[in-house]
Design a protein that fits this description.
single chain; eight-stranded mixed sheet; seven-stranded mixed sheet; 25 strands
Length: 514
């Protein structure tokens, strides 16, 4: 039987979302573009670049890119805001942040819809991104006074440079906690997506008197101001290792406080394991948002003698993945579709992944599974150039980026090992990671091997995540530089402690675990 013809869910078109933005925050949106926010004013400056939605290739609002001269003025204005804000009593800061959270809650549906169009998140995950930001900051509002404990704000504003994949639960969450701790905050919009969502969130915060600066521009052009400027009190970065290394060098040279979360190849080891039913159940969850998350698990390291049992558990699960247009339904008033993921961030990334897969196979990797467009949910005739269907490869060659780097897309690789030493070497292939998991039946084996895995969080047969509220987060090796975060550590990273304080983290001259 032919699959049903799908249509766009009623009221969810990009034009609908844009009109709602114009009505919700007319100060921040103008005609077909967003504005920059600096010096407490929304400004029609910067060159607006064209942008398209990864969902179907249609035009959406692009970032209005500033040059370094304007960025310099914005940073200086943020310092003035910082000096005023740090004198505001914590009770007043709590009230203003709480009011911002109430406003975000009122607009949570629109914020989530913007995330669907701008970065391709399925509806359920987009809503979760918004809700995690709101709920997480509410916890800090209740806990902030004990966390501060006579810790004053920094000497200058916190500069935030973050990737596009979690605009709310990572970037907006961090900004509001930084402001709650007494700092003005600066954020650069990610180049690849999320500008409208961030603009709306910042507009709601600015209305409540939160000292927010939101600017767009090339990282290379603005880094001198957003990283090296003497006014900056701390740099918070989330992104790839190449860019992160340049930021790490700059902050180390300047002695600035910093939080640099970078990518790593998070691995899942299988050794003397028999609970295959649990593994089958978790596999689809590991593909949430097409593995475009810092805590995704793109690599399985499997004991060779268990490979047949592993495949029997893995393949049926990966074949259940649901991919497609996040807003495509059979009838306009149907609920949002239940999908594991939609597109990757853009067509260029899709081509890069497709080329890497083809090259790896050409050099000897064995394809074990390839999803099909025939099984996906698309609108008739829609642009699908940003979609990558799930792929699983056995033994990617050492020459392939898929062997040693995080693909940031729905691609799993499997490496077979025969000894515990090989297992550990394969699980530590990227010189440090954020998370890892080891599935083994024997608790003593886990207790012996887990400390040798170079990841900040390690699960015993269960996945680990970034965490919320008082759960700590960081990375080992090249996956992290600077202070660890989560709970009171996030507040301590953006405040001044006693003389000689050594914060937990990875620093040029020491590493200290919490």
């Amino acid at each position: 039987m032919a699959p049903p013809t799908l249509t766009l869910k009623s009221g969810t078109a990009w034009t609908d979302a844009w009109q709602r933005c114009l009505a919700a925050a007319p100060e921040a949106f103008r005609d077909d573009r967003v504005l920059n926010l600096w010096g407490s004013s929304w400004r029609l400056d910067g060159r607006a670049l064209p942008a398209t939605s990864p969902v179907d290739g249609r035009p959406v609002a692009g970032p209005p890119r500033l040059g370094p001269d304007t960025a310099r003025r914005a940073v200086h204005a943020a310092l003035d805001q910082h000096r005023a804000w740090r004198e505001v009593p914590v009770t007043e800061r709590r009230a203003r942040v709480s009011a911002t959270l109430d406003a975000l809650t009122d607009h949570r549906e629109l914020l989530a819809l913007l995330l669907v169009w701008e970065i391709g998140k399925p509806w359920k995950l987009a809503r979760a991104d918004v809700d995690r930001a709101i709920d997480g900051v509410r916890w800090y509002v209740e806990e902030i006074e004990r966390m501060l404990d006579n810790r004053p704000p920094l000497d200058g504003p916190v500069s935030n440079i973050a990737s596009w994949n979690y605009p709310m639960s990572v970037l907006v969450h961090a900004m509001l906690v930084q402001a709650l701790a007494g700092n003005a905050v600066i954020a650069k919009t990610p180049t690849d997506g999320g500008v409208a969502c961030l603009t709306l969130a910042c507009a709601l915060a600015a209305r409540e008197g939160i000292p927010v600066t939101l600017v767009s521009g090339s990282g290379g052009e603005l880094s001198e101001e957003l990283v090296r400027a003497p006014e900056i009190g701390c740099v918070s970065f989330v992104g790839g290792r190449d860019t992160g290394a340049a930021v790490a060098t700059a902050v180390a040279d300047l002695g600035k406080p910093h939080i640099l979360e970078q990518e790593g190849l998070n691995t899942w080891g299988i050794w003397n394991h028999s609970d295959w039913e649990s593994l089958t159940a978790v596999i689809p969850k590991l593909f949430d948002y097409g593995k475009q998350r810092c805590t995704a698990y793109p690599r399985f390291v499997v004991q060779r003698s268990l490979f047949d049992a592993f495949l029997a558990a893995y393949l049926p699960a990966v074949r259940t993945l649901r991919v497609g247009h996040p807003l495509a339904v059979e009838h306009g008033d149907d609920p949002y579709p239940e999908l594991d993921f939609g597109p990757v961030i853009n067509a260029a990334k899709a081509k890069e992944l497709t080329d890497q897969i083809a090259e790896a196979i050409d050099r000897g990797a064995v394809p074990l599974h390839r999803g099909s467009a025939a099984d996906a949910r698309f609108l008739p005739g829609q642009d699908t150039s940003a979609y990558v269907h799930p792929v699983t490869l056995l033994n990617p060659p050492p020459s392939s980026p898929l062997h040693h780097s995080e693909p940031f897309g729905p691609v799993d690789t499997i490496v077979l090992v025969d000894t515990e030493a090989e297992l550990l070497a394969a699980m530590n292939a990227s010189n440090g990671a954020l998370v890892a998991t080891l599935s083994t039946d024997d608790q003593a084996t886990y207790d012996r091997l887990a400390p040798q895995i170079r990841a900040f969080k390690i699960g015993h047969g269960t996945p680990r995540s970034r965490g919320d509220r008082d759960e700590l987060f960081g990375g080992f090796g090249a996956s992290w530089r600077g202070a660890f975060v989560g709970g009171e550590l996030l507040v301590h990273a953006v405040t001044r402690g006693p003389a000689g304080e050594r914060l937990p983290g990875n620093f040029p001259d020491y590493q200290l675990m919490p």
